[in-house]
Prior knowledge:
The protein is mainly alpha-helical. Helix content is 91%, strand content 0%. It is elongated and about 80 Å long.
Amino acid sequence: MLIILGVLIFFYLLFLLRTILTPFFIAFFLAYLLDPAIDALERRKIPRMVGIVAFLLLLLFLLALLVFILYPIIKLQLDNLIEHIPSYMKTIRGWVEPLIGGISRQDPERTRLVVEEGLKRLGDLPTQILKGATNIIWGSLSSLFNLIILLLNLLIIPVATIYFLKDIDKIKGGLQAYIPLALRDEVVAVLKEIDGVLNGFIRGQLLVGLILAGLYSLGLTLCQVPMGLLIGVI
């Protein structure tokens, strides 16, 4: 009962401290995913700390380059979508009005008004989504406290990731000391198998998602689909 109570109290404290601990959880998750790559660099006689810093700098550079390239394209596609919404609504009206007219012949004028009202709301939807997203982002950053927390998190995550990557093998080894000696070999073998499968699955899914995002974005953009790049990434 004391063990169960202790575990419940521990998770309750984690819940209370979730705002503070979230960047550390993110950092540990990133370290968990990147550890195999750092281990590979270490096997090539590259000092672990040098490999960690170089690998993270390369990732940050690639991310910044990706944002720099994609942002103007996405903005251009979004502006183009908003500009062409009236013509899209006209096309949809040409599809919908005969269908609804065939279903409801008693009051064609009311049918027309309902269709126009629905299309008007549909046409305003992208603008409303953009305004809502902007209000949420601005509202979350309008408070000085929230802005400071955001900046601290942006600083803590990469620093904590570096330290977790540096000591992740020591952390795993230290956790083994808490397993009873009689069960240690068997439990460690099972945990290593779980770790290998889980790590490979997560990295594999992320790689598949990245490849599919590239293929969808390229295909939709070549077909001149509005917002093809953004749709492909999503």
